[in-house]
Write a structure and sequence with these properties.
The chain is 55% helix and 16% strand. It is α+β, with helices and mostly antiparallel strands. The longest helix is centred in the middle third of the chain and has 19 residues.
Length: 177
């Protein structure tokens, strides 16, 4: 997993709970990397899972809420560092449809060793989209947070439903009229 995910996770924890929590996580969670992460490095995703689980337990926040909050944070990071991915899309539906077919292709040009989740989209109507998430990492709640924040980014309101299966999570995004 790219190091930027780790560095931004710690940034998000600091914003949410203070630097003491970041320090606590780095001291209490054993990792192969010994808490030394750089944005351009590659690290086992299991280390992030351990940090998420520890933060969830220590802060009494459900894992799903931790991942959703972090996903929302990451969307903001992506919008700040890669505005071209957002500017080319007139609305959230166009943006979500572009994740696998455009954004991930561009990300792989920058980071050829990145291991990205897969997103398959099916447009149901102008206000409704089905998005299938596939990843061995099982972080569908992080994807939920990204989708939820994408709605806010485009100033649109709607509902997001999800159903998880063994090999995928299916998100249903329905815009309000």
């Amino acid at each position: 997993m790219k190091g930027v995910v780790f560095t931004e996770f710690f940034e998000w924890v600091e914003q949410e709970s203070g630097y003491e929590w970041v320090d606590r996580l780095l001291r209490e969670v054993p990792s192969q990397s010994h808490g030394a992460y750089t944005a351009i490095g590659n690290y086992p995703h299991t280390e992030l899972v351990e940090f998420v689980l520890h933060y969830s337990a220590a802060s009494a926040r459900p894992v799903d809420l931790v991942l959703k909050g972090f996903g929302a944070h990451m969307l903001g990071v992506f919008a700040r560092f890669y505005p071209q991915f957002f500017d080319r899309c007139p609305n959230v539906m166009a943006f979500l449809e572009s994740v696998d077919d455009y954004i991930h292709i561009e990300v792989l040009k920058l980071y050829p060793d990145a291991q990205l989740p897969r997103f398959e989209t099916t447009k149901i109507s102008n206000r409704s989209l089905e998005m299938v998430y596939r990843s061995d990492r099982g972080m569908a709640s992080l994807a939920f947070g990204l989708i939820e924040e994408a709605l806010r980014h485009y100033g649109q309101q709607g509902t997001i439903g999800s159903v998880s299966f063994d090999d995928r999570t299916v998100f249903s995004i329905e815009l309000n009229s």
